[in-house]
C-alpha cells in the first residue's frame, strides 16, 4: 500500500477526541502495508503459526487483530480477538445491547418484533448522540473523500483508515442507528460549517458518501481499474469475499497484497452501511428523496455487486457458498447475520428493492434484469432458499411489471400466499409493498376481484394477525393490517366479508365460530389499549368495520361492559386503568373509534354506563375548569379551538341539557381529547388549515367526504394512506368526528361548523368584538327560542299524561277481554288434544300395516329377480346352440371343397413328376450361380460396414456443426441485443449532447459575467496589495524593534551569567574560609 500505518489510531487517526465519542476499550495493534505471503485458510482465535517473513523490527502478516512482534523476537505469533469490529463474524457473535446501547436496547434485543420498545426518552437521547457523532466528527472527512473520488486522484483504503471510517466509534454509531431506525424517523440535520444557515449534512448522505468512497478505493487499488462500474464491482466483490467469508483470493487478484485485517474491517463497514441504508429506506424517509435521485453510478455499482453474487451462484452452485441450504424463512434479530454470505446476498436484493420502490433508475437496468431472471430460474429449481427467492421476486416485479400478466400473475399470487409465512419485518414490508405496487394496475385489481376466495380473507388477515399479536410480534401484524386496509379500498367485497364474519352472521364457516369472540376482543383491545403504529392502524380499521356492522354483538355481556368502560376511559369520560396517553394521533383515533361505536347504534349503552352524568355536566367536565361563567364561555367561543367552540356553543344555548345525543357525545369526546393531551390542538389547527385550502367547499353548505379529504392530504400523489402515516390518520379521525357532529346537528349549528372550517378572512380586534356581540345576540335569541320550545314541551307532556291515564283504562278493559278469550282457547285446546290422540293411534296402526306390506313387496322383488336371471341364462344357451349349428354347416361345406381340391391336386402331381427331372438339372445350375452370388455378398457386406462407419462419423460432425451453429446464433442474438442497447445509448448521448451544447451557451454567458466580476476582483486585489505592502512595512519595523529587544535581552542574560559566576566564586571562597 505504499507506507505503514498505525492500526492503533484507527479510532481517531490524530483527530481530537470529542465529548460525544466514548472511550474504546481496545488494545492497539499495528498492521503493515507490505505484500503478505500467501495464506491457505482462515486463522481462528487462539491459533499459533510461524511468523513467515517476520524479522527484527519488521511488519508481520496480521489476520485477526494481533499486535506487531517486538524487535528481536521471531518464531511464533499468538492470534486473538481485540474488538467486535474486527470482522463480520466477531460482530455478529458479540454485538449485543450491552455493546451498542446498554440498557436502552435490552428489551428490543429480547423481542425484535416490537419496535415500540425503542420509543423511550433514553433511546431518543441515544439517537441524538450517535447522529451528532456521525455528522460532527465524520461527515466532513467523508465528504472530502467523496469529493476527491470525483477527481483524478482517488482515495485509497489508507485514506479511509486515516479518516477514521473503520474505527469502532464510527461503526458503533452506524450499527446503533440501524437498530433505532426501525422505529424512529431519522431526519437529523447538522448545519454546514461554512454557512450556519444551510443544513446539508444528513445521515443518509453520510452513508451514501461512505459507500461511494469504498467503491472509489476499490477502483484505485494497486492496479487501477477502468472507468467501468462492472469492473469496480468485481474488484470490490473480491475484497468483500476475502474480508467477510473466505481467507484466500483467486490467482491474479489485484488485491492479493491487501492486508486481510483491513479487508475485514472494510467488509464490516460496507455491510453495516448497506443495512442502515436498507432500514432507512424501508421506513419511507421523505428527506432522502433528493439524495436517492442524484448519484446513478453508485446505484449501478451496487446492482453490479448483486450480479456478482448471482454469477458466483450460477457458475459454482452449492460449491460457491452462496446457494441457500435452509428451506425455512429466517427470524428477525436485533443485528443481521452479516457473516453469512446468503444473508448478505439477500440484504443486497432487499436494498435494491427499496431503491426501486423509491423510484431510483439504474444505469445498468438490462444487466440487472438479466441477473434477476437467471437467479429466479436457479432458485426455482432448488429445494431451498425460499427467503432469497422472495426478495428476488420483489425485485423482478418492480423491474419487469409488464411481464406479470403473461403468467396470469403467478408471482403476485405466490407472494400473497407467503404473507403468513414471513418471519422478517423488512421482508414482509417488501412483500406487501410489492403487492400494493401491483394493485396500482387496474387489470390486476380486476383479476383479484374475480379470483379472490373470500373465505380465505378472514383467516389470513384476522386470525393470523391475532396470532401474531398474542405472540407479541406486533411489527409483523402491521404490514398485514395495512394490506387489509388497502383491500378495503380496492376490493369493496372485502370489508362486508370481514365485518359480517366478525359479527357472527349465520352464513359464516363453523370453524371460525370459536375464535370469533377472541378475535374481536383482540382487535378492540389493541385499538384502545396498545401503543405505537399498530394502535393507530387498528383503530382506523376497526372504525371502518364498526361503521359496516356492529361486531361487538359477538361479545358476551361481561366483555362488552369492559370494552365500553375502556372506551369511555380512552376519551376521558371515565377514569381507567389503561396506559397513559402516548401521543396525540393515537388519542384522536380513539375518538374516531368512539364516534363509530356511536354510529353503530350503541348510544343507549354509553348513556347507561354514564348513569349520573347529564349533558350539561359532561360539557362542563370536558371544557377547561375556568369555563364555568357565561363570559368565559363567550371567550372560548371566540378564541378556542373548533372542538371547544362547539361544546361552548352547546353550553351557551342550553342545547338538550337533560339528554344525550350522538353530536353531544362526539363533540365532548373531541374536546376531552384536547384537555387530556395538549398536542391535539396542533392536529386541530392543521385540520382547519387543510380544510381551509379546499376552496371548492367554500360557500357551500356541505362537508367534504373522506375520499376528497384524503385526496387533499395526498396532494398530487392520489389518496393519502392513514395506515402508513400517523399524521394522516389523526387528521382523518378529526374529520370523521366533525362530519358526524355536522350530520347530527341542527341547521344553525351546521352553519357555525361551516363558518369555522371555511373562514372568509382573519378579522381584526374590532371585527372580532363585533362578532362576539353578534354571537351574544344570536345566542340570546336562541336561548329564548329554547325556553319557548321547553314550555311547549311541558304542555305536550301534560297532554301525554292525560293520554296515559285513558290508555291505562283501555288497557284494563282489553286485559279482561283477553282473559275470557284465553279461557275459551283452553277449552278448545283440550278437544283438539283428544282428537290428536285418536289420530296418533290410527297413524301408528297405519305405520305397522305399511311395514308388513313393505316386507311382502321385498320378498316378491327377490323372486322376480331370480326368475329374470334364469330367463337370461336360458336365452344365452339358445343363442350358443344356434351359433354351434351354423359353425357345423360351414365345416361340412369346407370338407366338400377339400375333396374337389384333392382330385385336382392328383392330376397336377402327375404333371409335376414329368417336370421334376427337368427342374433338377436347372437347380444344379442355379446352385452354382448362388455360390457365386454369395461370394459377392460377402464382399459387399464388408464394404457396407465401412460405409456405415463413415456415415456415423459424418452424423457426429453434422451434430457438432449444428451445436456450433446454435452457439453462434446465440452470440449473434446477444450481439444484436447489445447493438440495440448501444443504439439506445447513442440516442441518449445525442440528447445529452444537445443539452450539453445548451449548457455550454449558458456557461459562456455566465463566463462573461464572471470575467466582469474578475476585473472587479482584480481592482480589489490591487487595493489589498497596497494595504499588504503597508502592513509589510509596519511588520518590518516591528521585526527590527523585536531584533533590538532580543539583543538587549541577550546582553542582560550575559550580565546575569557574569553576576552568577561572581556569586559562585564568592560562595566557594566563603566555603573554603569557613572554620570546621
Structural topology:
Blueprint lengths: L47 E3 L25 E3 L9 H7 L2 H4 L5 H5 L10 H29 L7 H6 L5 H13 L8 E3 L7 E4 H17 L9 H16 L15 H23 L6 H4 L3 H21 L24 H17 L7 H17 L4 H14 L10 H8 L7 H14 L3 H10 L5 H14 L3 H17 L3 H10 L12 H14 L3 H16 L8 H14 L13 H16 L3 H7 L5 H8 L7 H10 L2 H12 L8 H15 L3 H13 L13 H9 L11 H18 L3 H11 L7 H309 L3
Antiparallel strand pairs: 1-2, 3-4
Features:
1076 residues, 4 strands, two-stranded antiparallel sheet, 1% strand, mainly alpha
Care to give the gist of this entry?
GO terms for molecular function: ATP binding. By secondary structure, the protein is mainly alpha-helical.
Main sheet summary? 2 strands, antiparallel
The whole-angstrom Rg is: 47 Å
Placed side by side, the strands forming the largest sheet appear as 1-2
Our measurement of the CA-to-CA distance between the termini, rounded to an integer number of angstroms, reads: 74 Å
Helix % is 55-70%
Mean pLDDT: 77
Residue stretches low in confidence (pLDDT < 50, at least 5 long) are 1-81, 190-199
- What is the 3D shape? flat
Put simply, the count of helices is: 34
Going by helix content, strand content and strand pairing, the class is: mainly alpha
In what range is the share of β-strand residues?
A: under 5%
- Give a count of the beta strands, DSSP E runs of length 2 or more: 4
Amino acid at each position: 500500500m505504499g507506507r505503514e500505518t498505525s492500526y492503533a489510531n484507527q479510532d481517531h487517526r490524530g483527530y481530537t477526541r470529542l465529548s460525544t465519542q466514548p472511550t474504546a476499550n481496545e488494545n492497539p495493534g499495528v498492521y503493515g502495508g507490505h505484500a503478505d505471503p500467501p495464506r491457505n485458510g482462515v486463522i481462528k482465535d487462539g491459533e499459533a503459526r510461524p511468523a513467515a517473513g517476520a524479522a527484527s523490527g519488521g511488519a508481520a502478516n496480521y489476520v485477526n487483530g494481533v499486535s506487531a512482534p517486538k524487535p528481536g523476537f521471531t518464531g511464533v505469533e499468538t492470534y486473538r480477538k481485540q474488538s467486535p469490529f474486527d470482522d463480520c463474524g466477531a460482530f455478529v457473535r458479540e454485538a449485543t445491547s450491552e455493546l451498542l446501547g446498554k440498557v436502552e436496547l435490552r428489551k428490543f434485543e429480547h423481542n425484535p418484533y416490537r419496535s415500540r420498545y425503542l420509543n423511550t426518552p433514553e433511546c431518543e437521547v441515544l439517537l441524538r448522540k450517535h447522529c451528532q457523532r456521525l455528522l460532527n466528527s465524520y461527515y466532513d472527512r467523508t465528504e472530502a473523500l467523496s469529493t476527491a473520488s470525483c477527481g483524478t486522484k482517488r482515495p485509497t483504503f489508507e485514506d479511509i483508515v486515516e479518516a477514521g471510517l473503520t474505527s469502532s466509534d464510527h461503526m458503533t454509531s452506524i450499527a446503533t442507528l440501524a437498530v433505532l431506525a426501525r422505529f424512529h424517523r431519522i431526519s437529523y440535520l447538522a448545519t454546514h460549517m461554512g454557512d450556519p444557515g444551510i443544513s446539508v449534512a444528513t445521515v443518509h448522505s453520510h452513508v451514501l458518501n461512505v459507500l461511494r468512497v469504498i467503491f472509489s478505493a476499490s477502483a484505485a487499488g494497486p492496479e487501477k481499474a477502468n472507468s467501468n462500474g462492472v469492473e469496480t464491482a468485481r474488484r470490490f466483490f473480491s475484497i468483500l469475499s476475502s474480508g467477510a467469508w473466505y481467507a484466500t483470493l483467486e490467482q491474479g487478484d489485484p488485491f492479493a497484497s491487501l492486508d486481510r485485517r483491513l479487508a475485514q474491517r472494510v467488509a464490516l463497514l460496507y455491510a453495516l452501511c448497506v443495512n442502515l441504508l436498507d432500514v432507512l429506506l424501508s421506513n419511507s424517509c421523505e428527506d432522502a428523496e433528493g439524495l436517492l435521485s442524484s448519484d446513478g453510478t453508485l446505484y449501478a455499482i451496487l446492482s453490479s455487486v448483486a450480479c456478482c453474487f448471482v454469477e458466483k451462484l450460477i457458475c459454482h452452485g452449492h460449491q460457491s457458498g452462496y446457494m441457500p441450504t435452509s428451506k425455512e424463512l429466517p427470524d428477525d434479530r436485533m443485528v443481521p447475520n452479516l457473516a453469512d454470505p446468503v444473508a448478505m446476498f439477500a440484504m443486497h436484493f432487499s436494498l435494491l428493492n427499496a431503491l426501486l420502490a423509491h423510484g431510483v433508475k439504474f444505469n445498468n437496468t438490462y444487466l440487472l434484469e438479466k441477473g434477476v431472471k437467471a437467479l429466479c430460474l436457479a432458485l426455482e429449481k432448488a429445494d431451498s432458499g425460499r427467503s432469497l427467492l422472495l426478495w428476488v421476486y420483489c425485485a423482478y416485479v418492480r423491474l419487469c411489471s409488464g411481464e406479470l400478466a403473461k403468467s396470469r400473475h403467478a408471482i403476485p399470487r405466490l407472494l400473497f400466499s407467503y404473507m403468513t409465512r414471513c418471519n422478517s419485518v423488512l421482508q414482509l414490508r417488501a412483500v406487501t409493498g410489492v403487492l400494493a405496487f401491483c394493485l396500482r394496475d387496474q387489470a390486476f385489481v380486476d383479476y383479484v376481484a374475480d379470483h379472490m376466495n373470500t373465505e380465505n380473507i378472514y383467516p389470513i388477515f384476522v386470525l393470523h394477525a391475532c396470532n401474531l399479536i398474542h405472540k407479541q410480534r406486533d411489527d409483523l401484524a402491521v404490514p398485514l393490517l395495512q394490506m387489509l386496509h388497502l383491500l378495503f379500498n380496492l376490493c369493496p367485497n372485502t370489508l362486508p366479508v370481514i365485518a359480517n364474519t366478525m359479527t357472527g352472521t349465520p352464513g359464516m364457516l363453523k370453524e371460525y365460530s370459536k375464535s370469533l369472540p377472541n378475535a374481536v376482543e383482540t382487535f378492540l383491545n389493541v385499538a384502545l389499549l396498545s401503543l405505537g403504529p399498530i394502535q393507530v392502524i387498528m383503530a382506523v380499521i376497526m372504525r371502518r368495520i364498526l361503521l359496516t356492522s356492529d361486531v361487538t354483538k359477538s361479545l358476551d355481556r361481561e366483555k362488552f361492559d369492559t370494552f365500553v368502560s375502556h372506551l369511555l376511559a380512552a376519551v376521558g369520560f371515565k377514569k381507567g386503568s389503561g396506559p397513559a396517553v402516548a401521543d396525540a394521533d393515537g388519542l384522536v383515533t380513539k375518538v374516531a373509534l368512539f364516534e363509530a361505536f356511536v354510529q353503530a347504534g350503541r348510544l343507549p349503552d354509553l348513556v347507561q354506563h354514564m348513569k349520573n352524568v347529564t349533558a350539561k355536566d359532561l360539557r362542563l367536565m370536558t371544557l377547561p375548569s375556568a369555563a364555568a361563567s357565561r363570559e368565559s364561555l363567550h371567550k372560548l367561543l371566540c378564541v378556542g379551538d373548533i372542538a371547544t367552540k362547539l361544546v361552548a356553543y352547546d353550553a351557551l344555548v342550553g342545547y338538550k341539557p337533560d339528554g344525550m345525543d350522538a353530536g353531544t357525545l362526539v363533540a365532548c369526546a373531541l374536546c376531552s381529547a384536547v384537555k387530556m393531551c395538549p398536542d391535539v390542538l396542533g392536529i386541530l389547527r392543521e385540520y382547519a388549515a387543510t380544510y381551509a385550502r379546499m376552496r371548492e367547499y367554500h360557500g357551500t353548505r356541505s362537508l367534504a367526504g373522506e375520499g376528497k379529504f384524503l385526496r387533499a392530504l395526498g396532494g398530487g400523489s392520489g389518496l393519502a394512506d392513514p395506515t402508513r402515516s400517523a399524521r394522516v390518520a389523526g387528521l382523518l379521525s378529526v374529520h370523521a368526528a366533525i362530519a358526524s357532529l355536522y350530520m347530527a346537528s341542527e341547521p344553525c349549528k351546521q352553519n357555525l361548523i361551516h363558518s369555522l372550517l371555511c373562514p372568509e378572512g382573519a378579522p381584526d380586534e374590532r371585527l372580532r368584538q363585533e362578532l362576539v356581540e353578534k354571537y351574544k345576540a344570536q345566542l340570546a335569541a336562541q336561548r329564548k327560542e329554547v325556553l319557548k320550545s321547553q314550555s311547549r314541551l311541558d304542555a305536550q307532556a301534560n297532554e301525554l299524561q292525560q293520554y296515559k291515564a285513558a290508555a291505562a283504562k283501555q288497557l284494563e278493559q282489553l286485559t279482561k277481554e283477553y282473559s275470557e278469550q284465553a279461557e275459551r282457547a283452553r277449552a278448545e285446546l283440550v278437544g283438539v288434544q283428544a282428537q290428536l290422540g285418536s289420530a296418533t293411534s290410527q297413524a301408528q296402526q297405519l305405520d305397522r300395516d305399511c311395514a308388513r306390506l313393505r316386507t311382502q313387496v321385498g320378498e316378491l322383488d327377490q323372486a322376480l329377480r331370480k326368475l329374470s336371471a334364469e330367463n337370461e341364462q336360458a336365452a344365452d344357451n339358445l343363442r350358443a346352440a344356434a351359433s354351434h349349428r351354423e359353425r357345423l354347416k360351414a365345416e361340412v361345406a369346407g370338407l366338400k371343397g377339400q375333396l374337389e381340391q384333392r382330385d385336382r391336386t392328383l392330376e397336377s402331381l402327375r404333371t409335376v413328376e414329368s417336370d421334376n427331372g427337368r427342374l433338377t438339372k436347372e437347380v444344379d445350375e442355379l446352385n452354382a450361380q448362388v455360390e457365386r452370388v454369395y461370394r459377392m455378398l460377402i464382399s459387399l457386406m464388408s464394404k457396407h460396414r465401412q460405409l456405415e462407419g463413415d456415415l456415423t462419423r459424418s452424423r457426429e460432425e453434422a451434430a457438432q456443426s449444428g451445436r456450433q451453429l446454435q452457439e453462434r446464433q446465440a452470440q449473434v442474438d446477444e450481439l444484436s441485443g447489445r447493438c440495440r442497447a448501444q443504439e439506445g445509448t447513442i440516442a441518449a448521448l445525442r440528447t445529452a449532447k444537445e443539452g450539453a451544447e445548451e449548457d455550454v451557451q449558458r456557461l459562456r454567458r455566465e463566463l462573461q459575467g464572471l470575467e466582469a466580476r474578475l476585473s472587479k476582483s482584480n481592482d480589489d486585489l490591487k487595493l489589498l496589495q497596497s494595504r499588504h505592502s503597508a502592513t509589510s512595512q509596519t511588520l518590518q519595523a516591528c521585526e527590527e524593534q523585536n531584533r533590538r529587544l532580543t539583543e538587549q535581552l541577550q546582553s542582560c542574560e550575559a550580565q546575569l551569567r557574569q553576576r552568577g559566576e561572581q556569586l559562585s566564586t564568592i560562595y566557594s571562597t566563603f566555603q573554603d574560609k569557613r572554620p570546621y
